[in-house]
UniProtKB/TrEMBL annotation:
Protein name as catalogued: N-acetylmuramoyl-L-alanine amidase
Source organism of this protein record: Pediococcus argentinicus
Annotated GO biological process: cell wall organization; peptidoglycan catabolic process
InterPro entries cross-referenced by the UniProt entry: MurNAc-LAA_cat, N-acetylmuramoyl_amidase_3, SH3-like_bac-type
Stored SUPFAM superfamilies: Zn-dependent exopeptidases
Transmembrane segments: 14-35
Keywords in alphabetical order: Cell wall biogenesis/degradation, Hydrolase, Membrane, Transmembrane, Transmembrane helix
Amino acid sequence: MNPDIILNYIKRNLIQLVIGLAFFILTFIIIQPLFKAKQVIIGLDQTVVRTSNNRFAGKLGTLDQGKKVSVLSENNDWYRIRYGKQAIGWIPAWNTGRGFQKGQVASKLSESTIVIDPGHGGNDSGALAINPKNQEKVYTLRTSRVIEKHLQQAGAKVIMTRDKDVFVDLAPRPKMANDLKADAFISIHYDSAANNNDGTGDTTYYYHKNNGSLQLAKDINQEIVNNVPLYNRGVDFGDYEVLRDNKRPAILIEGGYINTKKDFKELSSSDYPTKVANSVTIGLKTFLNR
């Protein structure tokens, strides 16, 4: 073909050609992410699709367990997804690709972020049992790990302030919950008396009355009464830094007296962490469903 003819054609149709090229580039930019989008599988039945990346956002619909969806982007551990033909919304990233039970249904807990705080750690042993080889820091972490597992099985996003025997100062613990805008903060401790065998029972502490902490303490303590065979000392005010500096619903559980023989036998038993974990999980569901 004659080059002059081509040149003249371009000159006559330059505007149309520029518009066409721009349209092609724009279409490519919009469509390209769809080809690159990763696929994830919905882990819980009736997973709510929301208008933005938080559990309080508007509800667009629900998705069935096992459905495959495309991830367009991720923000604060929520996925922006495409589902169906044109629908776009947000789901919790932690509710995908995990080994949930068949038919397990999504809940408010499964959309929630929970901070679990195993007390003490590292060079801070905490209280000592009658046998000083038994340190509080060991049992707080032991119990917290089982709580973490139960909450994850229920679909929650769980953050541990420590997941091994390391020292964590007090201030970063409530800060973590505040920064994450956690739905609840639960600190695990064990009590001690000035003299061996002088104290007994578990206590649930709160500091703030008006941010949900008192109600959270009541709901979880009620389940501790139902599940843990120790004398229950009830819900009480506790002026602890991890509670005082916490803007989120926050409680501290003193799960029995580590230096009382009867209490230690229970809190060191193989099934004790499961009893506490069940209490925390059920209590949280009650609290979040209010």
